[in-house]
Amino acid sequence: QVQLVESGGGLVQAGESLRLSCAASGSIYRINSMGWYRQAAGKQRELVAIITTGGSTNYANSVKGRFTISRDNTKNTVYLQMNSLKPEDTAVYYCNANQGVYNYNYWGQGTQVTVSS
Is 52 exposed, middle or buried (0-12, 13-18, 19+ CB in 10 A)? Predict the structure, then answer.
């Protein structure tokens, strides 16, 4: 089992920044990747950014150039730096860890990000 605990959400104005953190604990071996997804009200959950154990990153087109995903392996923590936030970034942000040969997914409890115009 992998436990994921997110923090850092909140209410900001358009153009401001936030940094989300996700701390992993438990059986954190053979993690293939960690990432951030978001789900806005009435919409499906979507990928925001992902980082593999090899350090490769991938971003949704809507956040490229504004968001940066990074990790600290010594703390088993992944971060999402969000700059130039827009109202359309408003959503619940979920941390994800993908593990093992069967690509099992673990999810955090989610953290709300609200961007006012």
Answer: middle
